[in-house]
Amino acid sequence: MPAAAAHGRLSRPGAHSAAGVSMAGSWRAKAQAGGMLLALLGWVSSCVTTFVPLWKSLSLDLNELEVWTMGLWQVCIAREEGVVECRAHGSFLALPPELRVSRLLMCLSNGLGLLGTLLAAPGLEGWTPCEDKPRLKRRLLLAGGATFGTAGMATLAPVSWVAYNTVLDFWDSTVPDIVPRWEFGEATFLGWFAGAFLAAGGLLLACSARATRASTPPVPACRQPPAAGHHPLPKPADLVI
User: Does the first or last residue of the chain, that is N or C, have fewer Cβ atoms within 10 Å of its Cβ?
Assistant: First the structure.
């Protein structure tokens, strides 16, 4: 009976350690899945924001049947009959500074989102080709999370800059009240959500990669085998039932 009790006491730490590693692995898998989903959603939203002509909207008081919308690449006029006419911007150098920089940053954000997807996907828990290389998986996951975070910043910066200039132009006191003013378009809010999703997804992926490193169980130290014919005596604490 004392030997069985001692064996039970010795086996309990291993069971608790295995349960802790299993719970940590489950948490990492959920964090990685949620981070990847947020990042992909933000990347797709960022691509849509880049190309839709809905960054600004303008309603004419003299002609309420027309609604003007502007994007990074073209200006569109939507009429009441459902007809939409779009015209591309002229020269790139003729655009306002915020639109020129926004074009470059949004294209950079889309490229970084694709790169982050290619980097983070092999580092996920369910990706089997790299299961035998945990250090490589952790580094890929960290690189993918950092890339997604950079893509989020590259999306938030131009959208916020265009929104800031829109507010300044709307409240410009030097412009007569009769002159129509541009307001926020739907793409402005979509861009804010896209940047937030990219940043949040990248942060989750990076945190899960750090947790993978911290929760790696240490390698047990090697012990010398007991000499032949020598039986170590059990400790008093091990004999307690």
Answer: N
